[in-house]
């Protein structure tokens, strides 16, 4: 297994990735509230009979960071320096979230990647940059071989992200994830480290 490196902060231009913190609750909740209708069709939900139990944001953040220290996931928030009044990097606002989950070592060495962005910041190249940074970190620092992204066929904005970065379409998985209250079909996109040359950040404009 690769050496666990957490916390990790990544930056390219005006886009940053930093760990989700227990103190991010109010800013995270405000962003989610502003974007309820924008995000609802793509949000994960609990299937009938699931009993994972409700928990606070602070408990979730602490649990995810604990898992990150064990090398199981990377819970990042996306920050943006191009926002009005952003100031120093430490003050860049939270504009979205990117999570690398299901990290597996051994003979597999793969993970899956998911993300969302505040609607008011969509279309600025923020998410492609965040995905590129996270994927390169997984390949070149953690030593993973494969990064996979699952996207609903109706999610045109998210499909543009993987297409822009050159992810390979591998097919559809019927009723793959429980999203917006039901099991939904997803398209699977992936890249292996041998396919990316110097990395995805190098592909950005």
TrEMBL record:
The UniProt keyword set, sorted, is:
Acyltransferase, Transferase
Acyltransferase found in the keyword field? yes
- Identify the SUPFAM superfamilies for this entry: Acyl-CoA N-acyltransferases (Nat)
The UniProt record lists the N-acetyltransferase domain at: 15-194
The answer, when asked if Membrane is one of the entry's keywords, is no
Instruction: List the PANTHER family hit by this protein, alphabetically.
Output: [RIBOSOMAL PROTEIN US5]-ALANINE N-ACETYLTRANSFERASE (PTHR43792:SF8), GNAT FAMILY, PUTATIVE (AFU_ORTHOLOGUE AFUA_3G00765)-RELATED-RELATED (PTHR43792)
User: Which family does the UniProt entry place this protein in?
Assistant: Belongs to the acetyltransferase family. RimJ subfamily.
This chain belongs to the protein called: Ribosomal-protein-alanine N-acetyltransferase
């Amino acid at each position: 297994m690769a050496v666990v490196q957490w916390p990790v902060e990544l930056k390219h231009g005006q886009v940053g990735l930093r760990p989700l913190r227990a103190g991010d609750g109010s800013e995270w909740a405000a962003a989610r509230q502003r974007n309820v209708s924008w995000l609802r069709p793509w949000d994960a939900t609990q299937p009938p009979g699931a009993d994972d139990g409700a928990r606070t944001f602070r408990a979730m953040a602490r649990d995810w960071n604990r898992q990150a220290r064990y090398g199981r996931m990377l819970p990042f928030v996306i920050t943006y320096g191009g926002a009005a009044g952003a100031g120093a990097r430490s003050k860049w606002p939270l504009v979205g979230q990117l999570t690398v989950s299901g990290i597996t070592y051994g003979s597999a060495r793969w993970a899956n990647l998911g993300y969302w962005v505040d609607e008011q910041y969509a279309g600025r190249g923020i998410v492609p940059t965040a995905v590129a940074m996270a994927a390169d970190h997984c390949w070149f620092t953690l030593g993973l071989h494969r990064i996979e992204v699952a996207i609903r066929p109706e999610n045109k904005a998210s499909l543009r992200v993987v297409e822009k970065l050159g992810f390979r379409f591998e097919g559809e998985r019927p009723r793959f994830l429980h999203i917006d209250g039901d099991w939904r079909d997803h398209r699977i996109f992936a890249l292996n480290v041998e396919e990316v040359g110097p990395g995805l950040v190098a592909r950005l404009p």
